[in-house]
Each structure stands twice: as structure tokens, then as C-alpha cells.
Amino acid sequence: MTRPDPKQVKVMTDVAGVPQDAEVAARIANSIGPAFDGFAPVAGTLPIDLEPASFLLVQNAKVSK
């Protein structure tokens, strides 16, 4: 996943049921952006990557082989 912009953060907070205004969404995007930048070199190479929900899929795929 790439660094989220304020529009993406706004959509995610709306979907999660905690709507925020544009100013708060911009602050959230600026706060979490460095974490995404830090993981950019290894994104897509980790078994869990940035989505922990896929962990079970990875583990089940390894077991079934």
C-alpha cells in the first residue's frame, strides 16, 4: 500500500463509522505517512505485508503445500 492521502483517509474513516472533517483527515495522513514511507522498500515482500488479515491465508497456503 502506498502512503494514503487525506482523501483516502477521509473515505476510510467514513467507512469505519468515525467520520472526520478534511482537516483531521489531513492530519491523520501526515501522521501515518512516514510509517508507510519506512515500509516502502519491503512492501509486497513480507508474508503479512501491511494487511494482517491476510496472515491466515498465508499460513493456510503453507500448510496445504
TrEMBL record:
It comes from the Bacteria. This is Uncharacterized protein.
